[in-house]
Amino acid sequence: MPLIRGCSREAVSKNIKTEVKAGKPRKQAVAIALSTARKNAGKCAA
């Protein structure tokens, strides 16, 4: 399942849940979710 694009807490949280459900260790899931949020941070800044 693709990860949600966005940098909100809700998007990061859902991405962590998605990765953990896919079988990734929790720390790795957090790293992936935060990395995705960082990549989209420029689009979220107002």
Overview of the molecule:
With 46 residues, this protein is mainly alpha-helical. The protein has one domain. 67% of the residues lie in helices and 0% in strands. The chain contains three helices and no strands. It is elongated.
Describe the SSE topology.
Blueprint: H1 9-21, H2 26-39, H3 41-44
Helix pairs in contact: 1-2
Q: Largest sheet, described in full?
A: none
The proportion of residues forming helix, as a percent range, comes to: 55-70%
Rg over CA atoms: 10 Å
The H/E string reads HHH
* Number of separate domains: 1
Counting helices, strands and paired strands, the structural category is mainly alpha
**Strand content range:** under 5%
What is the number of strand segments? 0
Number of discrete helical segments: 3
N- and C-termini, Cα separation: 28 Å
Average pLDDT, all residues: 92
Shape: elongated
Poorly predicted ranges: none
Can I get a quick summary?
With 46 residues, the protein is mainly α.
Relevant terms:
single chain, elongated, mainly alpha, 67% helix, 46 residues, 3 helices
